[in-house]
Design brief:
Layout (H helix, E strand, L loop, with lengths): L2 E8 L10 E8 L6 E5 L9 E8 L6 E5 L4 E10 L2 E11 L3 E8 L12 E11 L2 E11 L6 E7 L4 E2 L3 E2 L7 E9 L11 E9 L3 E4 L2 E9 L13 E9 L8 E9 L5 E12 L7 E6 L9 E8 L5 E6 L4 E10 L2 E11 L3 E9 L11 E11 L2 E4 L3
Parallel strand pairs: 11-20
Antiparallel strand pairs: 1-2, 3-4, 4-7, 5-8, 6-7, 8-9, 9-10, 10-11, 12-18, 13-18, 14-15, 14-19, 16-17, 17-18, 19-20, 21-22, 22-25, 23-26, 24-25, 26-27, 27-28
Length: 386
């Protein structure tokens, strides 16, 4: 934990020939990030979706609140358990597709104006056939604040990035360019670059493939009309990807310019991390090597496509067997091979595939296992499933 010491000198008694009074405050951010979980309730529950957000308090104190959405009915409940603040949000209904979430923030203490905390988590709540289904995501500021954002999104959802403010004259024909590259995995080369250039009128939605862009305008007074002064309105660029897929992970660099100026209205980098499970289940197989000249008699192999978060392959080691194991990877396929030379007794070789999770959002990680039996027959080994 990084601490900052704020020293305050009380001079109120100085003119009375008293010594100054020193007040020392330890200023620190929460030691753990904002944690959010979202899940549908049991069929008998009266609400449709539940969000639980928690964070450890800091100094200045943390403020935990709901990111409200018009058209949604909900009730919320606060608790404070030994410095851990918890906010539960029970969504009863939404009139349309909505985003509901939590925001944790603290106000800086002068003069330590740089030591402030802000984080948020949001859940897409889609209304389909009168049912409400939650698609959770989590966004944080990128390394270049106000110019980039990192978002973690569960595959299969329609996802809209947080809106980016537009500064300048947007009431014209707009030019938009987007460059995409897959740079989310350091252990593999880029899988390609996608480029798009197009023009659209600021009141329209520009859609290409599964991407859509729109200028959202919010007038600062209710009686404003679209022909009123630009200074009385706040505009932002909205970027949506429909039906997010595993291959959508990567960086999207978007530039928006107006027809009447060469200056950029928006230059922003969206980085997307797609959360998904393996595309095919764990596969295990045993091979007889007794006809080869190798010292190994059997090989036990398990393989699974990788996912995000990454899948870890491991083996439950049997007793009384002599073997050698090897890990390999071919493209996105992870493989564990065990070469067996001898076993004193009948044995079971098992392989497990488990997927990690995140502290900052709720996911359903992949978990699977498989096993094959090795039996001793007249001083030789064989497998039941070879």
């Amino acid at each position: 934990m990084r601490l900052s010491c704020l020293l305050y000198i009380d001079n109120s008694l100085h003119n009375m020939n008293f010594h100054p009074i020193y007040h020392l405050f330890t200023v620190y951010k929460p030691p753990t990030p904002l944690v959010c979980h979202g899940s549908p309730p049991s069929p008998s529950a009266s609400y449709h979706f539940t969000i639980n957000c928690s964070i450890t308090d800091g100094i200045p104190p943390m403020n935990l609140d709901v990111i409200e959405q018009k058209g949604c009915n909900y009730h919320k409940h606060y608790t404070d358990n030994n410095g851990t603040k918890v906010l539960s949000v029970y969504v009863t209904s939404c009139e349309q597709n909505s985003t509901v979430g939590c925001i944790a923030s603290s106000k800086p203490l002068d003069p330590v104006s740089t030591l402030k905390y802000s984080d948020r988590c949001e859940f897409n709540i889609s209304r389909t056939y009168q049912d409400i289904v939650g698609c959770s995501f989590h966004c944080i500021d990128g390394p270049n604040t106000n110019k980039s954002i990192y978002c973690y999104v569960i595959a299969g959802c329609d996802f809209t990035f947080p809106e980016v403010p537009i500064l300048g004259n947007y009431k014209s024909s707009l030019s938009l360019s987007m460059n995409y590259s897959d740079d989310t995995r350091s252990d593999s080369p880029s899988r390609g670059i996608y480029k798009y250039n197009g023009k659209f009128w600021f009141r329209d939605v520009n859609t290409v493939d599964r991407y859509s862009f729109q200028v959202k305008v919010e007038y600062l007074w209710e009686d404003e009309t679209p022909n009123d002064n630009l200074g009385r309105a706040a505009a932002a660029l909205s970027f949506t990807i429909d039906d997010v897929r595993a291959e959508d992970a990567g960086s999207y660099h978007v530039t928006l310019t107006g027809e009447t100026t060469e200056d950029s209205l928006v230059q922003y980098n969206y980085r997307l991390f797609t959360i998904y499970q393996p595309s095919t289940p764990l596969l295990c197989e045993m091979q007889d090597l007794s006809t080869d000249s190798s010292i190994y008699k059997l090989s036990f192999t398990c393989s699974v496509p990788d996912a995000y978060p990454s899948v870890v392959l491991d083996m439950i080691e049997p007793k009384g067997c002599s073997y050698y194991k090897s890990y390999s990877r071919n493209d996105d396929i992870k493989k564990l091979t065990v070469y067996i030379s001898t076993c004193d007794l009948n044995a079971t070789f098992s392989c497990t595939a488990t997927q990690g999770g995140f502290e900052f959002m709720s996911t359903i990680p992949y978990s699977n296992s498989c096993s094959l039996e090795v039996i001793l027959v007249s001083q030789s080994m064989s497998c039941l499933a070879c």
